[in-house]
Amino acid sequence: MSGVLLRLACTAAVTAQAVLAPVPAAAAPAPQRSVSQLLTDLQRLYRQAEQATETYNGTAEKLRHQRAEVTRLDGELARARLALQGSRTDAGRLARQQYQNSTDLSPYVRLLLAPDPQHALDESHVIGRLARERAETVARLAGTEERQDALARAARKALDAQLTLAGQQRKQRNDVTARLADVERLLASLTPEQLSALARLEQKDVAAAQDRLITSGAPADNRPPSSTEADRAVRYAMGQIGKPYQWGAEGPKSYDCSGLTSQAWEHAGTPIPRTSQQQWARLKRIPLTALRPGDLVVYFPEATHVAMYVGDGQVVQAPRPGGKVTLSPLASYPVLGAVRPAADTRPAATDAS
Fold this sequence. Notes:
Elements: H1 3-19, H2 35-100, H3 106-113, H4 117-188, H5 192-215, H6 228-238, H7 257-267, H8 276-282, E1 284-286, E2 296-299, E3 305-311, E4 314-317, E5 326-329, E6 335-340
Protein backbone atom coordinates (compact mmCIF):
# COMPACT_ATOMS: atom_id res chain seq x y z
CA MET A 1 0.00 0.00 0.00
CA SER A 2 1.51 3.31 -1.02
CA GLY A 3 2.51 5.97 1.53
CA VAL A 4 0.22 8.51 -0.13
CA LEU A 5 -2.72 6.14 0.06
CA LEU A 6 -1.98 5.38 3.69
CA ARG A 7 -1.87 9.07 4.60
CA LEU A 8 -5.15 9.76 2.76
CA ALA A 9 -6.86 6.82 4.38
CA CYS A 10 -5.55 7.75 7.84
CA THR A 11 -6.82 11.29 7.46
CA ALA A 12 -10.23 10.03 6.35
CA ALA A 13 -10.41 7.60 9.27
CA VAL A 14 -9.44 10.17 11.91
CA THR A 15 -11.88 12.72 10.50
CA ALA A 16 -14.67 10.18 10.44
CA GLN A 17 -14.02 9.26 14.08
CA ALA A 18 -14.08 12.93 15.09
CA VAL A 19 -17.43 13.76 13.51
CA LEU A 20 -19.46 10.60 14.05
CA ALA A 21 -21.87 10.62 16.99
CA PRO A 22 -21.20 8.09 19.77
CA VAL A 23 -22.81 4.72 19.27
CA PRO A 24 -25.72 4.20 21.69
CA ALA A 25 -24.94 1.87 24.57
CA ALA A 26 -27.68 -0.52 23.54
CA ALA A 27 -26.27 -1.00 20.06
CA ALA A 28 -24.63 -4.35 19.44
CA PRO A 29 -20.92 -4.02 18.60
CA ALA A 30 -20.05 -4.64 14.97
CA PRO A 31 -18.12 -7.88 14.41
CA GLN A 32 -14.39 -7.21 14.25
CA ARG A 33 -12.53 -8.58 11.25
CA SER A 34 -8.95 -9.74 11.63
CA VAL A 35 -6.13 -7.95 9.84
CA SER A 36 -5.75 -10.87 7.46
CA GLN A 37 -9.48 -10.72 6.62
CA LEU A 38 -9.25 -6.98 6.05
CA LEU A 39 -6.24 -7.48 3.78
CA THR A 40 -8.09 -10.16 1.83
CA ASP A 41 -11.09 -7.85 1.41
CA LEU A 42 -8.93 -4.93 0.33
CA GLN A 43 -6.96 -7.01 -2.17
CA ARG A 44 -10.21 -8.40 -3.57
CA LEU A 45 -11.59 -4.88 -4.08
CA TYR A 46 -8.36 -3.71 -5.73
CA ARG A 47 -8.45 -6.74 -8.00
CA GLN A 48 -12.07 -6.13 -8.98
CA ALA A 49 -11.29 -2.48 -9.71
CA GLU A 50 -8.33 -3.39 -11.92
CA GLN A 51 -10.30 -6.09 -13.71
CA ALA A 52 -13.02 -3.53 -14.47
CA THR A 53 -10.31 -1.10 -15.62
CA GLU A 54 -8.77 -3.60 -18.04
CA THR A 55 -12.23 -4.41 -19.45
CA TYR A 56 -12.75 -0.69 -19.99
CA ASN A 57 -9.32 -0.41 -21.61
CA GLY A 58 -10.11 -3.25 -24.01
CA THR A 59 -13.35 -1.60 -25.09
CA ALA A 60 -11.62 1.77 -25.44
CA GLU A 61 -9.01 0.18 -27.73
CA LYS A 62 -11.68 -1.45 -29.89
CA LEU A 63 -13.60 1.82 -30.00
CA ARG A 64 -10.48 3.65 -31.19
CA HIS A 65 -10.05 1.19 -34.05
CA GLN A 66 -13.77 1.32 -34.84
CA ARG A 67 -13.71 5.11 -35.11
CA ALA A 68 -10.79 4.85 -37.51
CA GLU A 69 -12.76 2.32 -39.58
CA VAL A 70 -15.79 4.62 -39.69
CA THR A 71 -13.57 7.47 -40.85
CA ARG A 72 -12.01 5.27 -43.55
CA LEU A 73 -15.36 4.07 -44.84
CA ASP A 74 -16.77 7.60 -44.85
CA GLY A 75 -13.81 8.70 -47.00
CA GLU A 76 -14.29 5.80 -49.41
CA LEU A 77 -18.01 6.52 -49.60
CA ALA A 78 -17.37 10.17 -50.44
CA ARG A 79 -14.98 9.13 -53.23
CA ALA A 80 -17.48 6.58 -54.52
CA ARG A 81 -20.18 9.24 -54.68
CA LEU A 82 -17.89 11.51 -56.70
CA ALA A 83 -17.09 8.62 -59.05
CA LEU A 84 -20.80 7.85 -59.36
CA GLN A 85 -21.50 11.45 -60.27
CA GLY A 86 -18.85 11.24 -63.01
CA SER A 87 -20.26 7.95 -64.30
CA ARG A 88 -23.76 9.42 -64.44
CA THR A 89 -22.41 12.43 -66.34
CA ASP A 90 -20.79 10.11 -68.90
CA ALA A 91 -23.96 8.03 -69.17
CA GLY A 92 -26.04 11.17 -69.71
CA ARG A 93 -23.74 12.33 -72.50
CA LEU A 94 -24.02 8.90 -74.11
CA ALA A 95 -27.82 9.05 -73.93
CA ARG A 96 -27.87 12.50 -75.52
CA GLN A 97 -25.57 11.36 -78.32
CA GLN A 98 -27.80 8.42 -79.09
CA TYR A 99 -30.92 10.56 -78.99
CA GLN A 100 -29.46 13.32 -81.18
CA ASN A 101 -27.68 10.94 -83.57
CA SER A 102 -24.54 13.02 -82.98
CA THR A 103 -21.42 12.97 -85.16
CA ASP A 104 -19.95 10.31 -82.92
CA LEU A 105 -22.34 7.85 -84.62
CA SER A 106 -21.48 8.99 -88.18
CA PRO A 107 -18.83 6.29 -88.75
CA TYR A 108 -21.71 3.86 -89.29
CA VAL A 109 -22.77 5.95 -92.25
CA ARG A 110 -19.20 6.47 -93.45
CA LEU A 111 -18.64 2.72 -93.39
CA LEU A 112 -21.60 2.12 -95.72
CA LEU A 113 -20.53 4.83 -98.20
CA ALA A 114 -16.76 4.32 -98.16
CA PRO A 115 -15.37 3.40 -101.66
CA ASP A 116 -12.01 2.28 -100.18
CA PRO A 117 -12.09 -1.13 -98.39
CA GLN A 118 -9.13 -0.20 -96.17
CA HIS A 119 -10.90 2.94 -95.23
CA ALA A 120 -13.94 0.86 -94.44
CA LEU A 121 -11.88 -1.34 -92.14
CA ASP A 122 -10.53 1.73 -90.39
CA GLU A 123 -14.05 2.98 -89.87
CA SER A 124 -15.02 -0.44 -88.54
CA HIS A 125 -12.25 -0.17 -85.94
CA VAL A 126 -13.58 3.23 -84.89
CA ILE A 127 -17.08 1.83 -84.56
CA GLY A 128 -15.80 -1.02 -82.37
CA ARG A 129 -13.87 1.37 -80.17
CA LEU A 130 -16.92 3.56 -79.68
CA ALA A 131 -19.07 0.55 -78.88
CA ARG A 132 -16.56 -0.63 -76.27
CA GLU A 133 -16.38 2.82 -74.72
CA ARG A 134 -20.15 2.94 -74.44
CA ALA A 135 -20.30 -0.53 -72.94
CA GLU A 136 -17.59 0.43 -70.45
CA THR A 137 -19.52 3.59 -69.52
CA VAL A 138 -22.65 1.58 -68.76
CA ALA A 139 -20.69 -1.07 -66.82
CA ARG A 140 -18.81 1.60 -64.87
CA LEU A 141 -22.09 3.26 -63.93
CA ALA A 142 -23.58 -0.01 -62.71
CA GLY A 143 -20.41 -0.97 -60.84
CA THR A 144 -20.08 2.42 -59.16
CA GLU A 145 -23.71 2.31 -58.03
CA GLU A 146 -23.16 -1.15 -56.52
CA ARG A 147 -19.97 0.00 -54.79
CA GLN A 148 -21.68 3.05 -53.34
CA ASP A 149 -24.54 0.94 -52.01
CA ALA A 150 -22.11 -1.57 -50.47
CA LEU A 151 -20.02 1.18 -48.89
CA ALA A 152 -23.11 2.92 -47.55
CA ARG A 153 -24.22 -0.32 -45.86
CA ALA A 154 -20.73 -0.95 -44.45
CA ALA A 155 -20.47 2.62 -43.15
CA ARG A 156 -23.85 2.34 -41.45
CA LYS A 157 -22.90 -0.99 -39.88
CA ALA A 158 -19.54 0.39 -38.71
CA LEU A 159 -21.22 3.42 -37.17
CA ASP A 160 -23.73 1.19 -35.37
CA ALA A 161 -20.82 -0.87 -33.99
CA GLN A 162 -19.11 2.34 -32.84
CA LEU A 163 -22.23 3.51 -31.03
CA THR A 164 -22.60 0.09 -29.37
CA LEU A 165 -18.99 0.17 -28.16
CA ALA A 166 -19.42 3.72 -26.89
CA GLY A 167 -22.44 2.58 -24.85
CA GLN A 168 -20.45 -0.35 -23.42
CA GLN A 169 -17.63 2.00 -22.52
CA ARG A 170 -19.97 4.30 -20.60
CA LYS A 171 -21.31 1.36 -18.57
CA GLN A 172 -17.80 0.08 -17.90
CA ARG A 173 -16.66 3.53 -16.78
CA ASN A 174 -19.49 3.50 -14.24
CA ASP A 175 -18.42 0.03 -13.10
CA VAL A 176 -14.83 1.17 -12.52
CA THR A 177 -16.06 4.19 -10.57
CA ALA A 178 -18.26 1.97 -8.39
CA ARG A 179 -15.40 -0.46 -7.70
CA LEU A 180 -13.07 2.37 -6.70
CA ALA A 181 -15.76 3.76 -4.40
CA ASP A 182 -15.86 0.37 -2.64
CA VAL A 183 -12.10 0.64 -2.03
CA GLU A 184 -12.43 4.17 -0.67
CA ARG A 185 -15.25 3.16 1.69
CA LEU A 186 -13.24 0.30 3.13
CA LEU A 187 -10.13 2.45 3.59
CA ALA A 188 -12.14 5.23 5.22
CA SER A 189 -13.56 2.74 7.73
CA LEU A 190 -10.12 1.68 8.98
CA THR A 191 -8.12 3.19 11.82
CA PRO A 192 -4.49 4.26 11.38
CA GLU A 193 -3.45 1.26 13.45
CA GLN A 194 -5.35 -1.12 11.17
CA LEU A 195 -3.82 0.49 8.08
CA SER A 196 -0.31 0.09 9.49
CA ALA A 197 -1.01 -3.53 10.39
CA LEU A 198 -2.32 -4.14 6.86
CA ALA A 199 0.85 -2.70 5.33
CA ARG A 200 3.07 -4.86 7.55
CA LEU A 201 1.12 -8.02 6.78
CA GLU A 202 1.13 -7.31 3.05
CA GLN A 203 4.91 -6.76 3.05
CA LYS A 204 5.39 -10.01 4.99
CA ASP A 205 3.22 -11.95 2.51
CA VAL A 206 5.09 -10.48 -0.48
CA ALA A 207 8.48 -11.31 1.05
CA ALA A 208 7.41 -14.93 1.60
CA ALA A 209 6.06 -15.22 -1.95
CA GLN A 210 9.28 -13.69 -3.32
CA ASP A 211 11.37 -16.28 -1.47
CA ARG A 212 9.24 -19.09 -2.94
CA LEU A 213 9.64 -17.72 -6.47
CA ILE A 214 13.41 -17.37 -6.17
CA THR A 215 13.66 -20.87 -4.68
CA SER A 216 11.68 -22.27 -7.61
CA GLY A 217 14.18 -20.80 -10.10
CA ALA A 218 12.97 -17.29 -10.88
CA PRO A 219 16.00 -15.08 -11.54
CA ALA A 220 17.36 -12.79 -8.86
CA ASP A 221 20.46 -11.67 -10.79
CA ASN A 222 21.00 -8.74 -13.14
CA ARG A 223 20.72 -10.40 -16.57
CA PRO A 224 20.98 -8.28 -19.72
CA PRO A 225 17.84 -7.45 -21.74
CA SER A 226 16.90 -9.86 -24.51
CA SER A 227 17.14 -7.16 -27.24
CA THR A 228 17.88 -3.49 -27.84
CA GLU A 229 14.12 -2.89 -27.98
CA ALA A 230 13.74 -4.49 -24.53
CA ASP A 231 16.51 -2.25 -23.21
CA ARG A 232 14.71 0.85 -24.56
CA ALA A 233 11.41 -0.34 -23.06
CA VAL A 234 13.01 -0.78 -19.64
CA ARG A 235 14.64 2.65 -19.74
CA TYR A 236 11.32 4.25 -20.68
CA ALA A 237 9.40 2.44 -17.92
CA MET A 238 12.04 3.30 -15.31
CA GLY A 239 11.80 6.92 -16.38
CA GLN A 240 8.12 6.96 -15.33
CA ILE A 241 8.81 6.05 -11.67
CA GLY A 242 6.98 8.38 -9.32
CA LYS A 243 4.13 9.19 -11.71
CA PRO A 244 0.64 8.42 -10.35
CA TYR A 245 -1.56 5.47 -11.17
CA GLN A 246 -4.68 6.55 -13.05
CA TRP A 247 -7.10 4.00 -14.44
CA GLY A 248 -7.38 4.10 -18.22
CA ALA A 249 -4.25 6.29 -18.52
CA GLU A 250 -1.44 5.74 -21.05
CA GLY A 251 0.84 8.60 -20.04
CA PRO A 252 2.73 10.71 -20.18
CA LYS A 253 1.58 12.14 -16.81
CA SER A 254 -0.06 9.01 -15.37
CA TYR A 255 -0.55 5.33 -16.16
CA ASP A 256 -2.47 2.23 -15.31
CA CYS A 257 -0.64 -1.12 -15.30
CA SER A 258 -1.01 -2.07 -18.97
CA GLY A 259 -0.84 1.56 -20.05
CA LEU A 260 2.72 1.64 -18.70
CA THR A 261 3.86 -1.61 -20.31
CA SER A 262 2.22 -0.92 -23.69
CA GLN A 263 3.63 2.61 -23.88
CA ALA A 264 7.11 1.44 -22.87
CA TRP A 265 7.21 -1.03 -25.75
CA GLU A 266 5.55 1.49 -28.09
CA HIS A 267 8.40 3.93 -27.39
CA ALA A 268 10.85 1.09 -27.95
CA GLY A 269 9.49 0.73 -31.49
CA THR A 270 7.50 -2.46 -30.92
CA PRO A 271 3.75 -1.92 -30.52
CA ILE A 272 2.02 -4.50 -28.31
CA PRO A 273 -1.63 -5.01 -27.32
CA ARG A 274 -3.11 -2.49 -24.90
CA THR A 275 -4.52 -4.62 -22.08
CA SER A 276 -2.94 -7.14 -19.74
CA GLN A 277 -5.29 -9.88 -20.98
CA GLN A 278 -4.35 -9.20 -24.59
CA GLN A 279 -0.66 -9.11 -23.73
CA TRP A 280 -0.96 -12.47 -22.00
CA ALA A 281 -2.99 -13.97 -24.85
CA ARG A 282 -0.93 -12.74 -27.82
CA LEU A 283 2.68 -12.37 -26.77
CA LYS A 284 5.21 -15.20 -26.59
CA ARG A 285 5.07 -16.96 -23.24
CA ILE A 286 8.31 -17.79 -21.46
CA PRO A 287 9.12 -19.62 -18.22
CA LEU A 288 9.88 -17.48 -15.18
CA THR A 289 13.35 -19.04 -15.08
CA ALA A 290 14.09 -17.35 -18.44
CA LEU A 291 13.04 -13.83 -17.40
CA ARG A 292 15.10 -11.00 -18.86
CA PRO A 293 14.67 -7.22 -18.43
CA GLY A 294 11.85 -5.96 -20.65
CA ASP A 295 9.77 -9.13 -20.31
CA LEU A 296 6.26 -8.68 -18.95
CA VAL A 297 5.05 -10.47 -15.82
CA VAL A 298 1.29 -11.10 -15.75
CA TYR A 299 -0.62 -11.57 -12.50
CA PHE A 300 -3.82 -13.24 -11.24
CA PRO A 301 -5.69 -16.11 -12.99
CA GLU A 302 -7.68 -13.65 -15.12
CA ALA A 303 -4.50 -11.82 -16.25
CA THR A 304 -5.81 -8.56 -14.80
CA HIS A 305 -2.45 -7.01 -13.86
CA VAL A 306 0.91 -6.69 -15.62
CA ALA A 307 4.36 -5.33 -14.78
CA MET A 308 7.76 -5.15 -16.51
CA TYR A 309 10.69 -7.18 -15.26
CA VAL A 310 13.83 -5.03 -14.82
CA GLY A 311 16.27 -7.52 -13.24
CA ASP A 312 17.41 -8.41 -9.72
CA GLY A 313 14.05 -10.02 -8.98
CA GLN A 314 12.20 -6.73 -9.40
CA VAL A 315 9.51 -5.29 -11.65
CA VAL A 316 8.52 -1.73 -12.46
CA GLN A 317 4.76 -1.27 -12.34
CA ALA A 318 1.82 1.06 -11.94
CA PRO A 319 0.54 -0.87 -8.92
CA ARG A 320 -3.06 0.17 -8.17
CA PRO A 321 -5.33 3.16 -7.44
CA GLY A 322 -3.69 5.57 -5.04
CA GLY A 323 -0.19 4.35 -5.86
CA LYS A 324 2.62 5.56 -8.10
CA VAL A 325 4.81 3.88 -10.68
CA THR A 326 7.40 2.09 -8.59
CA LEU A 327 9.92 -0.73 -8.30
CA SER A 328 8.46 -3.78 -6.58
CA PRO A 329 9.40 -7.39 -5.85
CA LEU A 330 8.55 -9.82 -8.65
CA ALA A 331 6.03 -11.52 -6.34
CA SER A 332 4.05 -8.37 -5.47
CA TYR A 333 0.91 -10.19 -6.65
CA PRO A 334 0.15 -13.84 -7.47
CA VAL A 335 2.12 -14.54 -10.67
CA LEU A 336 0.30 -16.10 -13.63
CA GLY A 337 3.28 -16.18 -15.99
CA ALA A 338 5.54 -14.13 -18.23
CA VAL A 339 5.58 -13.04 -21.88
CA ARG A 340 8.23 -11.55 -24.15
CA PRO A 341 7.33 -9.00 -26.84
CA ALA A 342 9.13 -9.40 -30.16
CA ALA A 343 9.91 -7.08 -33.05
CA ASP A 344 7.11 -8.58 -35.16
CA THR A 345 4.47 -8.17 -32.42
CA ARG A 346 1.33 -6.42 -33.65
CA PRO A 347 -1.69 -5.43 -31.54
CA ALA A 348 -5.00 -6.87 -32.73
CA ALA A 349 -7.83 -4.42 -33.30
CA THR A 350 -11.02 -6.29 -32.52
CA ASP A 351 -10.43 -9.15 -30.09
CA ALA A 352 -12.09 -9.06 -26.72
CA SER A 353 -9.95 -8.08 -23.83
